[in-house]
Specification:
The protein has a single domain, classed as Beta-clip-like, CATH 2.170.270. 5% of the residues lie in helices and 36% in strands. It contains one helix and ten strands. Strands 1, 4, 5, 6, 8 and 9 form a six-stranded antiparallel β-sheet that branches. A four-stranded mixed β-sheet has the order 2-3-10-7, with no helix packed on it. The protein is globular and about 40 Å long.
Length: 138
């Protein structure tokens, strides 16, 4: 039976997701079961920070885990849940959507996912954006 979930503004992580070591990128998010394309797999609350807060966060390791936030990108946020652990891929199998009113990030699959497969997002914001991200810039 295909796995599809409908959620409201509540926070959730599918119980079939888990964090495990990867072969070359520390830890990542994986699935114990197949997931169909278009499934919501996580809705995570975020902690929104001001531009002044971001200047301080940028001086720490947390810089690698924050997202630009707001329509004008003048703020940043720290997502809770598994969101900070999803690794980057230029061929991501998931995308994320930001809800500025609810202060949440939702992770959605963009294709069918196999059991045991790592779930990845594209750090550029669009799941299929090929532009180099900050840690791949020469």
């Amino acid at each position: 039976m295909p796995l599809r979930h409908i959620v409201s503004n509540s926070n959730m992580i599918l119980p079939i997701l888990f964090i495990a070591p990867t072969t070359d990128r520390g830890r990542g998010v994986f699935t114990r079961e197949p997931i169909t394309a278009g499934s919501i797999i996580e809705v995570a609350p975020v902690i929104v920070m001001s531009a002044a807060d971001r200047e301080k966060v940028d001086q720490t390791l947390l810089h690698d885990y924050i997202f630009e936030w707001g329509e004008d990108k003048s703020q940043c946020c720290m997502a809770l849940g598994y969101v900070p652990v999803y690794n980057h891929s230029y061929e991501a199998n998931c995308e994320y959507e930001m809800d500025y009113e609810a202060d949440t990030i939702t992770i959605i699959t963009v294709r069918d996912i196999r059991e045991g497969e790592e779930l990845c997002i594209n750090y550029n914001g669009d799941w299929n954006d090929p532009r180099p991200v900050w840690f791949h810039l020469a």
